[in-house]
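Late entry, written up from scratch paper. The run itself happened at the end of the previous shift, but nothing got recorded in the book at the time, so transcribing now.
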Amino acid sequence: MGVIAYSAEVGAAIEGEPLDFKELRRKAALIADTGEPMRASAPPDIAEEFRTVLKAIDTSVSNLKSGANANDVLDPVYGERNRPAFDAVENYDCGGGDS
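Output as recorded:
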C-alpha cells in the first residue's frame, strides 16, 4: 500500500503538481521500515522485484533536494528500467483474497 501511495504522489509531478518533499520522505521512511525486514522473507517469485522497488524508492527519495530535477525523483519509480518491478509488486497476489 505504501508503495502505491509513494508512486502516486511522485507521479503527480508528471502532471505538474509540486512535490511535497516532507511527505515523500515520510512515506519512503515507512516503506523502508516495513520493507527492509521483509527483504529476506519475500516470496521467491517476487523477491527480486521487491528488492528493486525498495532500492528505487530509496534512490528516488535521495534525489529529493532543493533544486532537484523532477526526472531525478520520477525516473527511479516510473522509468523503463524499474517500472516492471513496481507493476509486479503492485499486482502481486499475496493469497489473502476472497477465494
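The chain has one domain: 2-91.
(Scratch paper discarded after transcription.)
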